[in-house]
Specification:
Elements (H helix, E strand, L loop, with lengths): L6 H23 L3 H6 L6 H33 L1 H19 L5 H14 L2 H10 L7 H30 L3 H20 L12 H4 L9 H19 L5 H8 L6 H30 L1 H19 L5 H29 L5 H29 L4 H23 L5
């Protein structure tokens, strides 16, 4: 049956598994990063929040710097080599992170990991270069469920492992999962790629030269950054916030893992449906609805007093993300020529990485100066800015409805 499928579908299914492994591995270890760091020294609340924010964010900082270079290389060599570079790089760095003797070695390894990461973004770029336009939204939604499905399983499984065997073991499992992604990519992904002559005019011109509705595409890139900043702002200290809300601290890692996984459950359920809906009614309406829902959910999260209510609101944020993440990818893919799609997606990855730095670092400062719950007010502000940018871009390109 698989042999009868078109190549782009086979690649989509293989990359779904690779995305799942990447999402599961990363989310298996990240929610417990503050708890892991707390075992490395006697830190104050301010120091622990700061070190957690740095360790979480520095991966994305190095990713933001190098992604355009990798994207430019991908448009010359193909996306499959970039997938393998990312998978092998994360296999090594994730495993070594579990061996970290102190917080500074951990931070250094996460910096290196960021420079070699980018599996999921390159998976999007490869599929976007092949998928028929009419099935773009549905396919991007399906691909999103791979990484999000992994992000759903990872924290819960990681919480069980961390509670039973310690915080280092999830990093070793992360390394094993990325080794699996490496093998799947080698065996299951077939790319028919025609390299661009590096001396040609096409290679020398801006990646945005052939892009339709350039303001909208830029808005999607900026939107990706703001979505990441808002959604990830709580991640570095989520286990600390859960600890504050709990009356008893038994099974802290497992409870934190469940709370971290809830957005993934919602996104996994809703993403393909929102992707298909965007194919039918247009991505603009789905995107704006997702942003409005985000604002409506982030604001009351400020007032939560129980872990249960925190879980309810985190689940609803996952529904909003399901309307946002596939749509931004779809809009970029349908407006970008194939020969520059890797560069556009690499810019998107850079801005996503900047958001993943900006959100947690701002959140760490807010948590250190005020309180953990003020992070949700900050996230609400980011959503409002995002909505203004999207509405302006659609109006600028004459696409507002």
């Amino acid at each position: 049956m698989m042999s009868e499928l078109p190549r782009w579908k086979k690649n989509t299914y293989a990359l779904w598994v690779g995305n799942f492994a990447t999402g599961a591995g990363a989310s298996m270890s990240l929610p417990f990063l503050p708890l892991f760091i707390s075992t490395m020294g006697d830190f104050s609340k301010w120091e622990l929040s700061l070190y957690s924010g740095i360790a979480f964010s520095i991966t994305f900082l190095s990713q933001a710097i190098v992604s355009p270079l990798w994207g430019k290389l991908a448009d010359r060599t193909g996306r499959k080599p970039m997938l393998l570079r990312a998978a092998i790089g994360m296999t090594i760095t994730a495993t070594l992170t579990g061996l970290s003797p102190n917080v500074w070695i951990l931070i250094l390894l996460r910096l290196i990991q960021g420079a070699f990461s980018g599996y999921i973004n390159n998976a999007y770029a490869l599929v976007a270069s092949e998928v028929p336009t009419k099935q773009s939204g549905k396919t991007m939604g399906l691909l999103t469920t791979g990484s999000v499905g992994g992000q759903l399983i990872g924290p819960v499984f990681g919480g069980v492992i961390a509670d039973a065997f310690g915080y280092r073991i999830p990093f070793y499992i992360f390394g094993c999962l990325m080794l699996m992604a490496t093998v799947i990519t080698i065996v299951g992904v077939k790319e028919k790629f025609t390299p661009i002559d590096k001396n040609s005019q096409l290679a020398k011109q801006s990646a945005f030269a052939g892009v339709k509705n350039v303001h909208v595409v830029w808005a999607m890139i900026i939107s990706s950054m703001l979505i990441q900043a808002a959604t990830n702002s709580i991640n570095p200290i989520i286990s600390l916030f859960v600890k504050e809300l709990l009356t008893t601290h038994s099974n802290l890692a497992l409870t934190s893992g469940i709370i971290a996984a809830l957005p993934g459950i919602a996104t996994l359920i809703a993403a393909p449906r929102f992707g298909s809906l965007g194919d039918h009614i247009g991505p603009q309406k789905v995107l704006i609805a997702g942003l409005l829902l985000s604002g409506v959910v982030f604001l009351p999260t400020f007032f939560v007093s129980t872990v249960f209510m925190l879980g309810v609101f985190r689940f609803m944020i996952g529904i909003a993300d399901a309307a946002l993440l596939p749509v931004t990818q779809t809009v970029m893919s349908v407006n970008t020529p194939q020969e520059s799609i890797s560069r556009i997606f690499s810019y998107n990855q850079s801005f996503q990485a900047i958001g993943s730095v900006l959100g947690p670092m701002l959140a760490s400062m807010v948590a250190g100066i005020l309180d953990y719950r003020f992070i949700f007010l900050m996230a609400t502000g980011l959503v409002v800015i995002n909505l203004v940018v999207v509405l302006w871009a659609y109006r600028k390109d004459g696409l507002s409805s």
